[in-house]
Design a protein that fits this description.
The structure holds 2 protein chains of 2 kinds.
Chain A lengths: L1 E6 L1 E3 L21 E3 L1 H15 L5 E8 L4 H10 L3 E6 L6 H15 L3 E5 L10 H9 L3 E10 L3 E8 L2 E8 L2 E5 L9 E2 H7 L4 E5 L32 H10 L4
Parallel strand pairs in A: 1-4, 1-6, 4-5, 5-12, 6-10, 7-10
Antiparallel strand pairs in A: 2-3, 7-8, 8-9
Helix pairs in contact in A: 2-5, 3-4
Chain B lengths: L2 H11 L5 E2 L2 H7 L13 E3 L4 H14 L3 E4 L16 E4 L6 E5 L4 E5 L4 H10 L16 H7 L6 H4 L6 E8 L4 E4 L12 H5 L7 E9 L7 E8 L2 H14 L2 E8 H11 L11 E8 L2 H14 L2 E6 L3 H12 L1 H5 L5 E6 L5 H15 L4 E7 L4 E7 L6 H21 L24 H14 L12
Parallel strand pairs in B: 2-4, 3-4
Antiparallel strand pairs in B: 1-2, 5-6, 6-9, 7-8, 7-9, 10-12, 10-13, 11-12, 11-15, 14-16, 15-16
Helix pairs in contact in B: 1-3, 8-10, 8-13, 13-14
The chains are: A alpha/beta, B alpha+beta.
Chain lengths: 249, 458
């Protein structure tokens, strides 16, 4: 079985994100970029499945500009076998991304596509579901535990009420949740080895034939309003008085 | 003079003075992270203004009671421990950031501001306060100044001293001094600011400080290397230093790593254990890193290595190093904080290792250190079946050997923890008799009645 892992280059989780002064987007110049943390978990899971002897190849794919090669190289250093960069200079919305990925899926015919439940930049949580629909295959989303059998898998999903376990026929799309695994560290010798692994670049247009662009227009980005500073009260009486004044008690 | 009398006098001078005499509070505020002394604080007072500090000090001079200035109490030398019914002056209610000037890149803070608070403030202003250490969440700026705190990035950025542009101090006789006032250039003779920095609360109480902020560093990578021997630590350092712009080069042994991993429930970073590890932090530069790594692999010094791929992973790598002190704290370790010139480190480490393991095979030794600046922390773990007094006595004999070696090599018996009470008997190993005489003279000039932090430093 081949596993296709879709990853995205995003502003590092620990960076304090700043909106550009003209409101046209989020500042990324000189900002640390990393693999979307949920996608990193997806890479790790694919590698574990392969290491358990249940897959023969792990292919990692991303859509982005040339710099996204860096994140592909990281995934290769973690242990993926080869990488595909679908190159574009523009930001994609979910449907376009899913359509583009579908093209790669049809070419590669993987037994499983696995990716993060959402990317921490847009937090859309749409691409895996859209891809499964376009591909007309089952999906298991928000997965925190995965068990592969011959042509099915058992997926434990994190849902609002708790945990839900479903059985899904392969090929299928999996989206990962935070507790699925703890991604491994990248070893320096593996970074060297990763340089020799194949990385194919295809232009996005080649993957989007017939796609009709009906994207949303983003009008403006702005910083959320700053929260008011808390105040310290000296006594319970003062607290009660303040709550009353605000009509809360 | 009875404590109750002192409290009454304080109340007369400062009507709304905040204080506590509860046993728990006396024990909490009356000691630092050392556990070798019988804590016996008289009362803890919490002044809120410079004037209140001044009033307390003047009253101490008048009535002849002793004071122990107290910050975040994260010290390891007994410098903030009260053992003789002293009045402990806690600065923790003075934790305001008073002023910021963008042209000077300077911030004026009260002494009780927490180090981490200053880090965050600098970040909000697009600037950087580089002095950082494991206890930055509780240590206070006043205490950092009084001990000239160092920490993990001294290699690139230096010590607290390098960032103090001005100081407001209440001297031991109760005068308020405004020292250097934020000036970069000021050639007007003796710089009392620098005398106050590192004086461990024996000359004056720091109440406010003007701290210099700098531009933030470029993106940092964090790398963990598994090394084949103690000797390899310095050989890899000399390669890394040439190729990379290092901000930290930290070393720890497998024993230290095992303690951290056990204490914090972390997986070990490598499949195979190595004798020791280093953590390097540096300006991101993949090509240079690879060169260092390949060179080190060829010589057999480097066995394995991992490099952070996200900021979160970088922080996780740091946990392996910064979690060490905390992970061994419950064993009451005897801490050595020693330094020699960087060029002498390999020789020093080998001699020290031979010395300690030959004389004291029964002790578990936990080694780590900011080795890039010549600073080593040697921790001796108390065996379970040994009582604390016997252990302390044993460690004191270890000290005479270790310090003898340091003296021979022109090193320091306290690189960054300070002298306090614990290192005081050994100061002669790092300072000459003539120097000590002068130090005592300085103390006398500032504090003729020996009011401030008695029994510490000199």
């Amino acid at each position: 079985m081949k596993i296709l892992v879709a990853i995205k280059r995003v502003v590092d989780f620990n960076v304090r994100v700043q909106v550009k002064p003209d409101g046209s987007g989020v500042a990324t110049d000189g900002v640390k970029m990393s693999i979307n943390p949920f996608d990193e978990i997806a890479v790790e899971e694919a590698l574990r499945i392969k290491e358990a002897g249940k897959a023969d190849e792990v292919i990692v794919v991303t859509i982005g500009n040339n710099s996204a090669q860096q994140q592909l190289r990281t995934a290769l250093a973690m242990g993926a076998d080869r990488a595909i960069l679908i190159e574009t200079e523009s930001e994609l919305q979910s449907l376009k991304a899913a359509t583009s990925l579908l093209n790669v899926v049809e070419k590669e015919q993987p037994g499983m596509v696995i990716m993060g439940k959402q990317a921490i930049d847009g937090d859309n949580n749409q691409t895996p579901q859209m891809l499964a629909t376009l591909w007309k295959r089952p999906q298991a989303t928000f997965v925190s535990k995965l068990e592969i059998n011959d042509d099915t898998l058992l997926a434990t999903r994190e849902v609002d009420e708790g945990l839900e376990t479903i059985e899904v026929r392969l090929p299928a799309v999996i989206s990962t949740d935070l507790r699925l695994n703890e991604p491994r560290f990248v070893k320096l010798p593996d970074i060297m080895k990763a340089k020799r692994k194949p990385l194919d670049i295809i232009a996005i247009d080649e993957t989007l034939s017939g796609f009709e662009d009906k994207e949303l227009t983003i009008q403006k980005y702005e910083t959320p309003q700053a929260r008011q500073k808390g105040i310290m009260v000296e006594s319970v009486d003062e607290l009660v008085a303040l709550l009353k004044e605000k009509g809360l008690a | 003079m009875e404590i109750t009398e002192i409290i009454n006098c304080l109340k007369l001078e400062i009507a709304n003075i905040e204080y506590t005499t509860q046993t728990d509070d006396l024990n909490t505020y009356g000691q630092d992270w050392t556990r070798f002394h019988q804590v016996d604080a008289g009362v803890i007072v919490f002044p809120k203004t410079v004037e209140q500090v001044q009033t307390i000090v003047k009253l101490a001079n008048k009535l002849d009671f002793k004071l122990v200035p107290s910050g975040g109490r994260t010290g390891y030398s007994g410098g903030a421990v009260a053992t003789q019914k002293e009045v402990v002056v806690s600065l923790e209610k003075m934790r305001q950031i008073l002023d910021f000037n963008v042209d000077d890149s300077q911030v004026i803070v009260q002494a009780g501001v927490i180090t981490e608070q200053l880090h965050r403030y600098a970040e909000e202003k697009g600037l950087f306060y580089p002095v950082d250490f494991a206890s930055s969440g509780s240590s206070q700026i006043g205490g950092n100044i009084a001990t000239n705190a160092g920490g993990i990035r001294v290699l690139r950025y230096g010590m607290t001293r390098d960032y103090v542009a001005g100081l407001k101090v209440v001297t031991a006789t109760g005068e308020v001094l405004n020292l250097n006032q934020g000036l970069i250039k000021n050639a007007t003779g003796y710089d009392l600011r620098h005398l106050m920095i590192g004086s461990e609360g024996t000359l004056g109480i720091v109440v406010e400080a003007t701290m210099q902020l700098i531009k933030p560093a470029v993106e940092q990578s964090v790398m963990l290397l598994a090394l084949s021997s103690l000797d390899a630590v310095m050989r890899v350092f000399s390669i890394a230093k040439q190729q990379l712009n290092l901000s930290a080069y930290e070393f720890f042994t497998d024993i230290a790593l095992n303690h951290v991993c056990g204490h914090r429930s972390l997986d070990k970073p490598f499949d195979e254990s190595a004798p020791c590890y280093v953590l390097c932090e540096f300006d991101e530069d993949e090509e240079a890193v690879m060169q260092v790594f390949e060179q080190g692999m060829e010589t057999g010094d480097i066995l394995d290595g991992v490099i952070s791929q996200s900021l979160e992973q970088g922080q996780l790598f740091w946990q392996y190093r910064e979690g060490i002190s905390e992970s061994i704290a419950h064993f009451s370790p005897y801490k050595n904080d020693i330094a020699v010139k960087v060029s002498l480190v390999p020789d020093f480490m080998n001699k020290l290792d031979a010395l300690v393991s030959q004389h004291y095979p029964q002790f578990e030794l936990v080694w780590f250190g900011h080795i890039g600046d010549g600073n080593l922390h040697l921790n001796i773990i108390k065996p379970d079946d040994m009582n604390i007094d016997d252990f302390k006595a044993e460690c004191e004999t270890v000290n005479t050997h270790v310090y003898g070696l340091i003296q021979q090599m022109g090193g320091s018996i306290s690189a960054e923890h300070g002298v306090g009470m614990i290192k005081k008997p050994y100061l002669g190993y790092s300072r000459s008799a003539e120097e000590l005489q002068l130090l005592k003279g300085i103390k006398k000039v500032f504090d003729p009645k020996n009011i401030l932090n008695p029994g510490k430093l000199v």
